[in-house]
Design brief:
There is one protein chain. By secondary structure, the protein is an alpha/beta fold. It has 16 helices and five strands. It has helices at residues 2-8, 13-27, 32-53, 60-64, 66-79, 85-94, 111-119, 134-149, 158-164, 181-184, 188-198, 216-222, 238-244, 250-260, 264-269, 276-285; strands at 99-104, 123-128, 173-178, 207-213, 230-232. The chain has a five-stranded parallel β-sheet with strand order 2-3-4-1-5, sandwiched between helices. It is flat and about 85 Å long. It starts with a helix and ends in a 10-residue tail after the last helix.
Length: 295
């Protein structure tokens, strides 16, 4: 009895820590991942231990050591469970073949910053759509294609554009069309050309196509009619906000997170060297504050 107690109760504080991470993930809206890890980490590991490892070392100590072992495994997996948006994009880029994804997020999610960071060190073409007519949009993209790839187009059409893009070597080319809803809504030929590009019917090399947008409504309700895969840019969770403000005590960070949430653009405006009251007055309550119209 004493041996069992020494094995299971001395490291029992790990169990409390183990419950902390899945609780935090559930609070951030990730309920499926903690459920799966709970089944695998606490139940699956112990069953595996009993049927695979225990028969090789039949002792009371070896049997009950599975308890602290499963605590540690479950904690480690939960800490690694949330991948960053950049890691998700890098994972898609590394896949073989062509990829097409709709990338979206709420206002202030710093989508452009994520795209720049992702494209760093890669061959890419970036075009930001304007609120313009279909013909004007076509002409503006054509001119940027000619400038980016130092070519002269024989005609202005999206199929012609995607035939002429190139990475210059066997590496995968990234094609980013930002605020894509402005062209998709007005020009069916763009949709057809993007689908043909993905199917290797235009540019023969490997390509990753990102249709980015800050319109959550378009991304979730209209884009799925044409494009199957999408990725939402998530706001920062509380732990990430704590890391973003290393000079603030946790109690102060709780107030910041409760006020601004995890929206990166809002958090960038917060001055760590000023008090909570000063920041709220300066950014939110003042008519000239950067976040006055967001409140």
């Amino acid at each position: 009895g004493l041996e069992i107690l020494s094995i299971t109760t001395v490291p029992y504080f790990f169990c409390g820590i183990m419950d902390l991470f899945p609780g935090a993930l559930r609070g951030m809206g990730y309920s499926t991942i903690p459920m799966i890890l709970s089944i695998i980490g606490t139940v699956g590991i112990r069953i595996l231990w009993i049927f695979v490892f225990f028969p090789m070392h039949r002792s009371l100590y070896f049997l009950f050591i599975s308890y602290p072992g499963s605590y540690s495994f479950y904690m480690e997996d939960n800490m690694k469970a949330k991948y960053t948006d950049l890691e998700k994009l890098q994972g898609l880029f590394k896949k073989t073949g062509n990829q097409l994804i709709v990338l979206y997020g709420r206002k202030g999610c710093q989508k452009e910053h994520l795209i720049r960071e992702f494209c760093a060190g890669k061959k890419y073409f970036y075009y930001r759509c304007r609120q313009a007519s279909a013909q004007s949009q076509l002409e503006m993209m054509g001119k940027e294609i000619e400038t980016a790839f130092n070519i002269t187009l024989s005609k202005y059409s999206y199929e012609e554009y995607f035939k002429r893009i190139k990475s210059g070597d066997p590496t995968k080319l990234v094609v980013v069309i930002d605020e894509a809803q402005y062209v998709v809504k007005k020009d069916q030929t763009f949709i057809d050309a993007v689908k043909a590009l993905r199917k290797h019917k235009l540019y023969p090399g490997p390509v990753m196509i990102i249709l980015a947008t800050s319109s959550t409504v378009w991304a979730t309700q209209e884009a799925p009619e044409h494009f199957k895969d999408s990725m939402k840019i998530e706001s920062l969770n509380f732990l990430e906000v704590v890391r973003a403000f290393p000079n603030l005590p946790v109690s102060e960070t709780v107030k910041v997170y409760g006020t601004l949430g995890g929206v990166p653009q809002y958090l960038d405006e917060w001055d760590q060297n000023k008090s909570y009251k000063e920041n709220v007055c300066r950014l939110i309550l003042s008519p000239y504050g950067r976040l006055f119209n967001e409140a």
